[in-house]
Automatic annotation (TrEMBL), chain A:
Essential component of the vacuolar proton pump (V-ATPase), a multimeric enzyme that catalyzes the translocation of protons across the membranes. Required for assembly and activity of the V-ATPase. GO terms for cellular component: plasma membrane; vacuolar proton-transporting V-type ATPase, V0 domain. PANTHER family: V-TYPE PROTON ATPASE SUBUNIT A (PTHR11629:SF63), VACUOLAR PROTON ATPASES (PTHR11629). This is V-type proton ATPase subunit a. Residues 94-128 form a coiled coil. Keywords: Coiled coil, Hydrogen ion transport, Ion transport, Membrane, Transmembrane, Transmembrane helix, Transport. The chain crosses the membrane at residues 403-427, 448-466, 535-556, 568-588, 640-663, 817-841. It holds the Pfam family V_ATPase_I.
From TrEMBL, chain B:
Subunit of the V0 complex of vacuolar(H+)-ATPase (V-ATPase), a multisubunit enzyme composed of a peripheral complex (V1) that hydrolyzes ATP and a membrane integral complex (V0) that translocates protons. V-ATPase is responsible for acidifying and maintaining the pH of intracellular compartments and in some cell types, is targeted to the plasma membrane, where it is responsible for acidifying the extracellular environment. May play a role in coupling of proton transport and ATP hydrolysis. Regulator of osteoclast fusion and bone formation. Subunit of the integral membrane V0 complex of vacuolar ATPase. Vacuolar ATPase is responsible for acidifying a variety of intracellular compartments in eukaryotic cells, thus providing most of the energy required for transport processes in the vacuolar system. This is V-type proton ATPase subunit. Keywords: Hydrogen ion transport, Ion transport, Transport. V-ATPase is a heteromultimeric enzyme made up of two complexes: the ATP-hydrolytic V1 complex and the proton translocation V0 complex. The V1 complex consists of three catalytic AB heterodimers that form a heterohexamer, three peripheral stalks each consisting of EG heterodimers, one central rotor including subunits D and F, and the regulatory subunits C and H. The proton translocation complex V0 consists of the proton transport subunit a, a ring of proteolipid subunits c9c'', rotary subunit d, subunits e and f, and the accessory subunits ATP6AP1/Ac45 and ATP6AP2/PRR. GO terms for molecular function: proton-transporting ATPase activity, rotational mechanism. SUPFAM superfamilies: V-type ATP synthase subunit C. Belongs to the V-ATPase V0D/AC39 subunit family. GO terms for cellular component: proton-transporting V-type ATPase, V0 domain; vacuole. InterPro entries: ATPase_csu/dsu_sf (IPR036079), ATPase_V0-cplx_csu/dsu (IPR002843), ATPase_V0-cplx_dsu (IPR016727), V-type_ATPase_csu/dsu (IPR035067), V-type_ATPase_csu/dsu_dom_3 (IPR044911). Gene3D superfamilies: ATP synthase (C/AC39) subunit, domain 3 (1.10.132.50), V-type ATP synthase subunit C domain (1.20.1690.10).
Length: 882, 349
């Protein structure tokens, strides 16, 4: 069975693993990535599970790695990607890793603290140097005037507060220091409020920037000079400085001493810089050692964590673990191989056991898609993951999706650009894919690269059919219209009508697509409208009929053969008789009526309406030509039959199924009593037995299961090995749910019946009304195609052809050059992007609503296997945690 | 115009965001899991599965309660600051009002700290980040309330609140308490009037909440004042005059001499009567404080019933504060292996 047509066959199995082998086995299964484990401990708290301590250790390691990674990135070192995939290390190695990380972490932290201290020191020294410099210049410039300036500045305030001027006896003291630039206004304000303006404050910005020792950020600082008088003010000033994160530096009073100090500071800075360089060197060494390994480490730790997380979902017995998992039947051999490798690695002597289970739970849906189909499968799955076993619309979508898109986007030129864009992304697939786009929109486009390419390709095709490229037509094969007109005729009037009887070569048509002569015709739109509208109906009806036909495969697969008769056939009749007939009439009209009989051509719309009103006007002599007359023999009889077939299929759709179900249920209820005392309460339960005996039995079953191949999966009767009490119990346990599942819960019949009847009514109404509205809905194919063609024509006439008509070879060239820029941009922005998106959306709708409603349920859930691949793709640890 | 019609233009985004935040508040089931924890690491593991996510992921393994406290608070602060940055008036002003209470707390914390001779740079990190402002750093200069006003509060929004208790007296613990309560009283009254002026649903919700807060303060001030040197006249000045107790209840409270008289005053108010009736100091009983908290949680949850109003922002901050108190309580119980009272947290949802 094709893997795309339906979901892969899935099985629920129990795996019994020896405790010591479990880790290696799960690791192998993670590499394989084809097994979805079920959480058997759902009601156990995260911190009460078995392997929580290991997970905690992993988190601790992660924390250290994150720290190291941050440090590496802070030093602007690159973390190299690794191509190979390191396996999850054995649990024993975890200790080694832990020790190694611990060592690295300690070393790094120590280096950092040292570095920080050194940097702090360095910062202070540099600040001191600046401060000394500043003070020196300040005193040099103002030196003697300070006392005077201060008096002037503070005079007013002091008088206001104290009343009389105080004595000048107290010596002038001063504080010098630095303060972050952003604190300056507050500092000034607070200083003023606190001292009532009795101090003399000067602030100057330091031109150099400093580096924050901890974060490494740039800091701007200002230097301040505060002159004060008296002890009390001194305290206040000091407190303010402390509070504002200012640093006060002990600057000596005399110029001489300052000079000496400055000298000393300079030498110390040089020394310190040497030490700092060495310390940085050391840090670099430590980091570069980690740099090479960190990706591998990250992956390893993540894998260990994932394994323990998975093992936390297992049930723990004495010395074995029980896992329940879904996997595709095809992969059974791979899984066995993986398990045996795991056993070998761990050196376990007792083999693990896979035992199939029967359950009434719905299996997950899994398609093994390649990257081409994946995009289309995603389109289908965005609507709903298909119910297990149902027909997958994706393979058909691969063709119908781009085709219906192209019908709306029919322009060879635009299609070609789109095709190139898609092709570009496909060719560059590897390099773009490895770069990991952060832009969500770009990611969407990249994800749909194959769809884009296909849409482009199909648009070229429909463009050729419409004979439309950037709204121009090409006359490649030569038009088949021959307007043999004389000059006088040409001059006589603006509009000349060509009669297809004489002016068209009726034996053949233009080789492919629409004849290019229509490009210059006034009634081009009328002609194309008629063509495109009919085409839309034809395509729509075919698409829907196809959908209805696909439902047969679902009925066959789910063995509800009755549905073929009560659902598929009436639906087919309804759709076919009403709309299939319309399509047939369209073809009949196209083929049977040519230019010579143009006046007799029937008005299909009127005829179709009349079909429902039973109004028929038959020709009296068969000679008269009127669009309203019946146009073929026996038309009224055919239409009566069609009409009544369609109408009669409605009650069949409505009633047959519920009646059938009720009848069968009654007869079954008579046959068997509704309750089996042997029905187990919990379906998946395995009777807890002495582990050794059970294990042996399981092995026997496993053996049988191996011998039987896939068949034993199918019917849920594992071969009973050497008969043994437990084996029977197990086998019976599996049989029972299968039975009760087949019976279909006959406990609460009445409610279900009424529910089913309501459901059936809704479904019938939905289908019948849906057929009509859906057919009309396909007219969007015509509408959007028209819109697209008109828009591109407008763009041509309003923009580019303006440039082309400007006179003059040289001027015109330049003007065209400029105007082309606008035209090209508008073409890409409006016609390709906007129109493309709108056509895409409409196609999406046509598939989701009009097509899939005919057969697709989409009530399944996706298969999410436990796999390490995700870990490999991630860039850094941050991704896991964020 | 109906304010509801235009509310979303300015504040819709933030309200939506906030309601999202609100749904991250821990549920009863989470608490049931939390109290089963054996160690703080268990606590961390469980909190990881809630809205708190990886907020503790970068902390080295032996966790302490104070680290958890810091991180919990940091998360709230980030959320509130985010909303404040994106807020337009009058919501911005409303959010500022919420922050004022933290500012008052910080001022008092620092004054008390400096009174006990602790250096300022040690105290500053202890301040609640929602209530920091630049001038706080100068607080160690404030020996008297005049100085406090002049050096610290003069150009902050708190300045008008302190005007009732400016004096040249040296600050001591009694003074600090009076300053705290005066600040808080004026703050509550101001906030109350602000909400009243906003009108509409905001006024409905907020006035009820603030009235409760005011009444709670009045009760607590009264109860705590027994046996201290606070005179009745001074005490009555500290009562916020925007609660349900104002005016007659406050007058009665002002004359109380012991707990039973306070209880007698509460008798007149059905909502408080219930709180007093169900509380007690016997083991197994809930304390009056817890009952007040419970009632507050009830009020705050009610605030979420109305849309197009600012009360939800206030309510969220209060609920989150309660949640932090709950988690810290549980964490302390776990850390000290004192599990007897571990379940006396106050469930929110």
């Amino acid at each position: 069975m094709g893997s795309l047509f339906r979901s892969e066959e899935m099985r629920l199995c129990q795996i019994f693993l020896q405790t010591e082998a479990a880790y290696a086995c799960v690791s192998e299964l993670g590499e394989l990535g084809l097994v979805q484990f079920k959480d058997l401990n759902e009601n156990v708290n995260a911190f009460q599970r078995t392997y929580v301590s290991q997970i905690r250790r992993c988190e601790e390691m992660e924390r250290k790695l994150r720290y190291t990674e941050k440090e590496i990135l802070r030093d602007k070192m690159r973390i190299p990607d690794i191509l190979d995939n390191p396996k999850a290390p054995a649990p024993k190695e975890m200790n080694d890793l832990e020790v190694e990380f611990e060592k690295m972490d300690n070393e790094l932290r120590q280096v950092n603290t040292n570095n920080e201290a050194l940097k702090q020191n360095h910062l202070e020294l540099r600040e001191l140097k600046e401060v000394l410099d500043g003070t020196q210049t300040y005193f040099a410039v103002y030196g003697q005037d300070i006392q005077h300036m201060m008096n002037e500045e503070t005079q007013g305030h002091e008088e206001a507060i104290i009343g009389t001027r105080s004595q000048q006896t107290a010596a002038l003291g001063f504080y010098v220091g630095t303060i972050p630039r952003e604190k300056v206004p507050v500092f000034e304000r607070v200083m003023r409020f606190v001292t009532h303006g009795t101090v003399f404050l000067r602030i100057e910005e330091i031109a150099k920037t400093f580096e924050d020792p901890v974060t490494g950020d740039e800091m701007h600082k200002c230097m301040f000079l505060v002159f004060y008088q008296g002890e009390q003010l001194r305290n206040k000033v000091k407190k303010v400085c402390e509070g504002m994160k200012g640093t006060i530096y002990p600057v000596p009073e005399s110029t001489q001493e300052r000079q000496e100090m400055l000298h000393g500071v300079k030498t110390r800075i040089v020394d310190l810089e040497n030490v700092l360089a060495q310390s940085n060197e050391h840090r670099k060494r430590v980091l570069s050692k980690a740099q090479k390994e960190i990706r591998a480490w990250t992956i390893k730790v993540e894998k260990i964590k994932a394994i323990y997380h998975t093992m936390n979902m297992f049930k723990v017995h004495l010395n074995s673990l029980t896992a329940e998992c879904w996997f595709p039947v095809k992969a059974i051999d791979d899984i066995r191989r993986a398990l045996s490798i795991g056993e070998k690695i761990s050196g376990s002597t007792i083999p693990s056991v896979i035992q199939p289970m029967v359950t009434d739970e719905n299996p997950p849906t899994y398609y093994n898609c390649n990257k081409f189909v994946k995009g289309f499968q995603n389109i289908v799955h965005s609507y709903g993951v298909s119910t297990y076993g149902e027909v997958n619309p994706a393979p058909y979508t691969v063709i119908t999706f781009p085709f219906l898109f192209a019908v709306m986007f029919g322009d060879a030129g635009h299609g070609f650009i789109m095709f190139l864009f898609g092709l570009f992304m496909i060719i560059k697939e590897k390099s773009i894919g490895s770069k990991k786009l952060t832009n969500e929109i770009a990611n969407t486009f990249f994800g749909g690269r194959y769809i884009i390419m296909m849409m482009g390709l199909f648009s070229i095709y429909t463009g050729v059919i419409y004979n439309d490229a950037f709204s121009r037509s090409f006359n490649i094969f030569g038009t088949h219209w021959y307007p043999n007109l004389t000059d006088s005729e040409l001059r006589s009037s603006e509009n000349i009508q060509l009669n297809p009887m004489f002016a068209h070569k009726n034996s053949s048509a233009y080789l492919i697509g629409v004849d290019p002569i229509w490009q210059s015709a006034k009634n081009k739109i009328l002609f194309l409208n008629s063509l495109k509208m009919k085409m839309a109906i034809i395509l729509g009806v075919i698409h829907m009929l196809f959908g209805v036909c696909l439902s047969v495969f679902n009925h066959l697969h789910f063995r509800s053969y009755i549905d073929i008769f009560v659902k598929f056939i009436p639906e087919l009749l309804f759709l076919g008789c009403l709309f299939g007939y319309l399509v047939a009439m369209i073809f009949y009209k196209w083929i049977m009526f040519d230019a010579s009989r143009a006046s007799c051509a029937p008005a299909l719309l009127i005829h179709y309406i009349n079909m429902f009103m039973f109004k028929y006007t038959s020709p009296i002599n068969g000679e008269l030509c009127d669009p309203n007359l019946t146009f073929y023999k026996g038309q009224d009889t055919t239409q009566y039959i069609m009409f009544f077939l369609a109408i009669l299929s409605i009650p069949v759709l409505l009633i047959a199924k519920p009646v059938y179900v009720v009848v069968t249920r009654r007869s079954r209820a008579k046959k068997s009593d509704s309750y089996h005392p042997s029905d187990p309460l919990i379906f998946n339960e395995v009777p807890p037995e002495d582990s050794e005996i059970t294990l042996q039995v399981y092995q026997n079953i496993n053996q049988g299961f191996q011998d039987d191949g896939h068949d034993s999966f199918g019917n849920g009767h594992p071969k009973e090995g050497p008969t043994n009490g437990t084996a029977v119990a197990v086998a019976h346990d599996q049989q029972a749910p299968a039975q009760s599942h087949g019976g279909g819960g006959h406990g609460h019949g009445d409610e279900e019946t009424s529910e089913m009847i309501i459901h059936q009514v809704i479904e019938t109404i939905e289908f019948c009304l849906g057929c009509i509205s859906h057919t009309a809905s396909y007219l969007r194919l015509w509408a959007l195609s028209l819109a697209h063609a008109q828009l591109s024509e407008v763009l041509w006439h309003m923009v580019l052809s303006l440039g082309l008509t400007v006179a003059g070879r040289y001027v015109g060239g330049v003007v065209t050059f400029v105007i082309f820029f606008f035209w090209a941009n508008l073409t890409v922005a409006i016609l390709l992007l906007m129109e493309g998106l709108s056509a895409f959306l409409h196609t999406l709708r046509l598939h989701w609503v009009e097509f899939q409603s005919k057969f697709y349920e989409g009530e399944g859930y996706a298969f999410e296997p436990f796999t390490f691949r995700r870990i490999l793709r991630m860039q850094s640890l941050e991704e896991v945690t964020s | 115009m109906l304010p509801e019609l235009t509310f979303n233009i300015d504040h819709g985004y933030l309200e939506g965001l906030l309601r999202g935040f609100k749904s991250g508040i821990l549920k009863q089931a989470d608490y049931l899991n939390l109290i089963q924890c054996e160690t703080l690491d268990d606590l961390k593991l469980h909190l990881q599965s809630t809205d708190y996510g990886n907020f503790l992921a970068n902390e080295p393994s032996p966790l302490t309660v104070s680290v958890i406290d810091d991180k919990l608070r940091e998360k709230l602060v980030v959320e509130v600051e985010h909303m404040r940055i994106h807020a337009l008036q009058p919501l911005a002003g409303f959010l500022d009002y919420i922050k004022y209470s933290y500012m008052i707390d910080n001022v008092i914390l620092l004054i008390t700290g400096t009174l006990h001779g602790r250096p300022i740079h040690e105290l500053l990190p202890k301040c609640h980040p929602l209530g920091t402002f630049d001038q706080l750093a100068a607080i160690n200069l404030a020996n008297t309330s005049i100085m406090l006003y002049n050096a610290v509060l003069v150009d902050t929004p708190l300045a008008p609140y302190i005007k009732d208790c400016i004096s040249a007296e040296d600050l001591d613990e009694m003074n600090v308490e009076i300053i705290r309560n005066t600040l808080y009283k004026s703050y509550l009254e101001d906030f109350y009037n602000f909400c009243k002026k906003l009108g509409g649903a905001t006024a409905d919700v907020m006035c009820e909440a603030l009235a409760f807060d005011a009444d709670r303060r009045s009760f607590i001030i009264t109860i705590n004042s027994f046996g201290t040197e606070l005179s009745k006249e001074d005490r009555i000045k500290l009562y916020p005059r925007c609660g349900n107790l104002y005016p007659s209840g406050l007058k009665l409270l002002g004359e109380c001499d012991d707990y039973d008289q306070v209880r007698a005053v509460a008798e007149y108010y059905p909502q408080y009567k219930e709180l007093f009736d169900n509380s007690g100091s016997n083991p197994g009983d809930k304390t009056l404080e817890d009952k007040f908290f419970e009632y507050e949680v009830h009020l705050m949850k009610k605030a979420f019933m109305q849309q197009f109003q600012f009360g939800v922002f206030y309510a969220y901050v209060r609920l989150k504060e309660q949640e932090i108190r709950n988690i810290i309580w549980i964490a302390e119980c776990v850390a000290q292996r004192h599990r007897a009272k571990i379940d006396s947290y106050i469930p929110i949802f």
